[in-house]
Design a protein that fits this description.
29% of the residues lie in helices and 39% in strands. It is an alpha+beta fold. The longest helix is centred in the middle third of the chain and has 17 residues, at 68-84.
Length: 163
């Protein structure tokens, strides 16, 4: 296994430190869109974050599937916070670009977005984005979207640093 993949595999096994989890959660709680959608963070590990979006009519489109906008929003957010777990408290991240492929109708009791850092750099970070439709009965997980994201590392603003 190459060095990057070995490092990613090791990061996936352990939760982030208490300080990193607190900083990431505080930032997530300031996101109006995630609150509005009803999304919640379920895993914060070094270079990896999971976000769950419960199914309800407000996040669906006209055919009853989860809306692509909601699917994309949780994917983008999971990747951004995955990157943030690898930086110190003086850093923040912003999405530069992302591409998402919608692979199947997004159905299930909830959606789960998984953001995983592929390459973390001094300025730019690249993440893999995956979104699964999860059906609790039968514990079925279906990959409904995947993509890639590039983020830029920035200095925290005074408002964000007040946490």
């Amino acid at each position: 296994m190459d060095d990057d993949r070995t490092q990613r595999a090791g990061r996936e096994l352990a939760e982030a430190s208490a300080e990193v989890r607190a900083r990431v959660r505080a930032s997530f709680e300031r996101q109006g869109l995630m609150s509005h959608l009803g999304a919640r963070m379920t895993l914060i590990a070094p270079g990896r974050v999971h976000i769950v979006l419960p199914g309800r009519p407000e996040v669906t489109q006209q055919h009853g599937y989860f809306h692509a906008g909601a699917t994309s929003a949780i994917a983008d957010t999971a990747g951004g916070y995955a990157a943030l777990t690898l930086f110190g408290p003086d850093s923040d991240v912003l999405t530069v670009e992302y591409k998402i492929n919608l692979l199947a109708p997004a159905t299930g009791d909830h959606m789960e977005a998984v953001g995983t850092v592929l390459k973390s750099g001094r300025t730019l970070t690249v993440c893999q984005l995956e979104v699964f439709g999860v059906q609790e009965e039968g514990r079925r997980r279906t990959l409904v979207a995947n993509g890639q994201q590039t983020l830029i590392r920035t200095r925290r603003t005074d408002a964000a640093a007040a946490d």
